[in-house]
Amino acid sequence: MKNMKKHKTLRLSLGWQILIGLAIGIIFGVIFQNNKQFINFASGLGSIFINMISMIVLPIVVSSLVVGIANMGDLKKLGRIGLKTLIYFEVLSTIAFIVGMIVANIFNLGSMLDLSQLSKTDISSYIKTANSASHHGLGSILLSIVPSNFFEALSTGEMLPVIFFTAMFGLGIAAVGERAKILIDILQAVAEVMFKVTGWVMKFAPFGVAGLIGATVAQLGLNSLKPLALFILMSYLTMIFFIFVVLGITSRIFGFKITDQLLVVKDELILAFSTASSEVTLPKLLEKTQKLGVDKGVASFVIPTGYTFNLDGSAIYQALAAIFLTQAYGIHLTLAQQITLLLALMVTSKGMAGVPGASFVVLLATMSIVGVPHSGLAIIAGIDRLVDMGRTVVNVAGNVTATLVLGKSEHSFNQEQHDKYVESFRKKA
């Protein structure tokens, strides 16, 4: 018995396993720099993990959201939650844009760059994406919410049409009543099975993380990061400020502590950082926010919606990068021009929701209005992945805060359950 207990205490948590995978990936990336065979192998390892997560995300979202909405059973309440959610997302995203622009103006790091000494990365694929995506503004995003074919939306992984259909389906179940209760039981069982599968998939996370970061380091090389090290540092410090100050104050207003949230989801934040993917954390965030006391219907609606509209980290990066590049090119923006740029970023970022490499594509679509050429964005394209890791953490942390805040504002929150769950993590720490 003593040996068994000792074995349990020595077992590493998922967070530590991921950090070890991250360190091993960096070491191998440095050793095998520019080695195509290693890059292909490591990228394949990372892709397997991302694909496994993608495989389970939509079944969890569909089953959890249908059950949550069916139990809520109120169209008025759903509409109210939806409106509150979108307003909250817009307010926080706007603050994130403003914070990024203010920091970039204060430090003026772009003016320190010597553009002639910077290696440039090929961004032709991003330009093609930006050109095609720019024809689809906010109006087409709103139109695409209603799917013509639900199964097609499922197969392509389009989150908003899936959310719309499942919300309507859940309300339909509630309207039918007792006869449709069997569907709730089935979908509840599906959700529980998928959460179990998530646990198995997460065991592969350290290997996937090692592959993803290893391929990145092997491709970039550490020397290529030096000229833009200050921009990377400024980005991370701004994101840390946003989490602890902006999200911290928001949490405090509603009676929460940001440190409690970070403690509970620390493993998911490490995973988000090391994979630069918000999607990999979605199944666990749905589970943990419910254990934090948020009603299933609210959590199942807010978190998937947040993955499209609540991208605070991306907003910070876009604002920082936009001002940074104008400074690098010696372009002085007046206050009116910066406000115009802010509005353009806000609108374009919504229009690019769901586009691959959305943060970078948003910059491509907006920077020409202030005189920065497309080729100028090649300056920061090389380090985009490294900053992406940080902005993904902010996106995930922001969605956790949003879920708690909206749950409490809707009186769909259990304070006692929240306190017990947080206390269980404090004891482990």
TrEMBL record:
GO MF, one example: symporter activity
Topology of this chain in the membrane: Multi-pass membrane protein
Keyword vocabulary terms for this entry: Cell membrane, Membrane, Symport, Transmembrane, Transmembrane helix, Transport
Transmembrane feature ranges: 12-32, 52-73, 85-107, 159-177, 204-222, 228-249, 319-346, 358-381
GO process annotations (BP): dicarboxylic acid transport
Entry's Gene Ontology cellular component terms: plasma membrane
Subcellular location: Cell membrane
Keyword Amino-acid biosynthesis in record: no
Protein name, UniProt field: DAACS family dicarboxylate amino acid sodium (Na+) or proton (H+) symporter
Organism from which the protein derives: Ligilactobacillus hayakitensis DSM 18933 = JCM 14209
